[in-house]
Amino acid sequence: xxxxxxxxxxxxxxxxxxxxxxxxxxxxxxxxxxxxxxxxxxxxxxxxxxxxxxxxxxxxxxxxxx
Length: 66
Hints:
Elements: H1 15-25, H2 30-53
Helix pairs in contact: 1-2
């Protein structure tokens, strides 16, 4: 994977939401909060698509409970 290339964007955001995101993600800047939030959204969407794609592929009883 190559180096990440950033592009300058200008948009309006809810300042309170960015502040909450910074706190939840433990980052120092608004830019970090936005970048990390976008990465997390993409990751969770990929996860749910995987989950939907593998739904019903396990047979009942194929996983043993501890």
